Amino acid sequence: MSDPHEPGEPDFAPEPAHLSAAEPPPAALPTEPAQPPAFGATEDAPAVPLTVPESARRLADGEWHRLHPATPFLRGGIAFVAIIGVIIVNARDVFLDTIFGGGSRELQFLERFAESSLILLAILAVIVILLLSVGGFYLSWRMHTFRITDELVEVRSGIVFRTNRRGRLDRIQGINISRPFLARLFGAAKLEVNVAGQDANVELAYLGSKGADDLRLAILQLASGTRAAEAAAAASVAPVGVGGLVESRVNELLAPELDPNTAPPESIVRISIPRLIGSLLLSGPTVFAVLAAIGIITTVVTTGDVGWIFIILPGFLGLAGYLGSRLTRSLRYSIASTADGIRVGYGLLSTTNETLPPGRIHAVEVSQPLMWRLAGWWEIKINTASQAASSGGATAKTTLLPVGDMNDVHRVLQLVLPSLADEKSRELLECGLAAGAHDDDYVTSPKRAAILRWFSWRRNGFALISDAVALRKGAIWRSLVLVPQARMQSVSMHEGPLLRRMRLAELRVHTVAGPISATIGAMDRTDVVRFFDEVAHAAVHAAGVDTSHRWRSAAAAPEVAAATEMPEAETVPETQAAPEVPEVPAATAIPAIPAIPATPATPENLAPSEDHA
Prior knowledge:
alpha+beta; six-stranded antiparallel sheet; disordered C terminus
């Protein structure tokens, strides 16, 4: 295991072994300019060009690298500076009071301490603590290193207690880049690699702002099946002076969240500030807070006890903070398609942009709260396999569209599920979002289910839309759940004593854990059994042909096929006799085993206890 580069070393990393120039051919053959082999290419894996800048290629060379030099200050130095500031302010007050006299009671203790002989020891202790803190920050920066190989992202940290975190590239669910306001002033950004699993994310805090964007592109290309062959030619970087540094920081503060080089310049959805504020005011927490405030005011006026105000005040302050954070996170919202997935950006002062690679979205829910119905607004949430808690907020990671109309919903769904772009699928989507009963392809609940679904039994239903399973639920709070067939984990059918007596059943489509529950109940048992069988077969077929998780591998398929074609057999000269091959006796044929015909799932042969596919 090699040591990290020293700060005084050159800005470029030594060329790793897998990037070394190819060996020259024998002298008897005509020579050609040597080309670097594929970045991690193997005999079985195609070589696809890794089109990333040289800076990102250097960071993804498999060697250990350090983070941004301002990392200790951005992670823990701010609190330390605040403590030093408090000490300096108090010392200034004591000094001024000593010079000009008049002293206040609050400073009498500090005055007596300053006049004692322990003042020199206190100053020495502060200096020692300051030096130890600076040394600790420096050591933590030196010991915090990372490396990126063709298979994983690895981070080592800690001085006394060492920590090692690894994230496999084929398990990446998305990559977030967060730019807090203070970090943007230093030209730094935090890159978080979302890996499938519980609290399995790998965080690189902090990197250079431009380096973080380039490194994200390199990680996504490696995760997509790219086995890098040649990087794009790196342009020479001119030294940056003071004027150029200030200009670059201003450009970073005003730059859009979507990189024009990797995404279309215009977002497909625009959220106006009045719509965003209106959606927050008409949300469930706000309506509940208004009703609670009316009740508290009525109680205070009736009883004359103002203590209720102090009881409810912390709750209102918490609600105000929650709504404020949602508002600032949703400002400058943008979403667009890139070559490596869906890019979502949001934030005003502290910004975040997230890339969701293809095949990483396991479920989609389009929902409409009751108060949004008059305005025609909808919200889109998603389930991904990454379940780690982040400082950016779980709501921002699971909410793909904070608020939008029907046209915005169709645009976003076409990004998430491109197979739903045809006219038939669009018609079924509109039927799934509409209210009331419709004569469509959805299989709805029977009339006897009205005792369990008072208002929604006419709307409650399921259907297969292209390569996704659609579950339509709710009449007051409408929702449409879409589960890609290739991302389904399993399908199950449940019927308790009451449902069995009413000849009803519940269908569950199992996906990864998240805010979306793909469950629909109070359906006719015969319809559930038939749909159970259709979905099970469709999921197996979709998983077998799905290649979205290695989205760049298909681009190299024609080249690989051409490179792996067998050369034509050379003609043996007539003067040279071919060697005789001894005859091998034929093997004894094994009688074929007759195939067992598959029994379709029907209400008669599907036992109630065996309800999982």
